[in-house]
Amino acid sequence: MSDSAASATAMPPFHMAFPVADLEATRSFYLDVLGCGLGREAERWIDFDFFGHQISAHLRPDEVARAQTNEVDGDQVPVRHFGAILEWDAWHALAERLKAAETAFIIEPHIRFKGQVGEQATMFFTDPSGNALEFKAFKDPARVFAR
Description:
Blueprint (H helix, E strand, L loop, with lengths): L2 H7 L5 E6 L2 H11 L3 E6 L2 E6 L2 E7 L9 E4 L2 E4 L2 E6 L1 H13 L4 E8 L7 E7 L5 E6 L10
Pfam family, one: Glyoxalase
Protein name: VOC family protein
């Protein structure tokens, strides 16, 4: 097995911290809507198990701001965003759960770059503080970094 293949199978989880305006609304969204696990918490922050990664929501309403956009494949994509790459079926299940929860999508679930090397399922929406999230899936996971 090559070094890159070995590291892909044992990829370490990442950590990311981000500002939120309301901890209780954030807790509800990440736990109930996205299905994340709850980690440690204190008066001004909460850790979540975000699809195997650790994200920390910090109460800082003064730092919450709407992301500017760039055009990508005909869509206005929020430049500042985060999310996860899911397996194909898990992405579709999440999209259906979000639709059932009447999520207001920035970019509706769809297939981007259809027929091209980077073909992917993608969707964008915001958390209660306006942080943009993207979830995507590749029919062929080996194409995540394909050029």
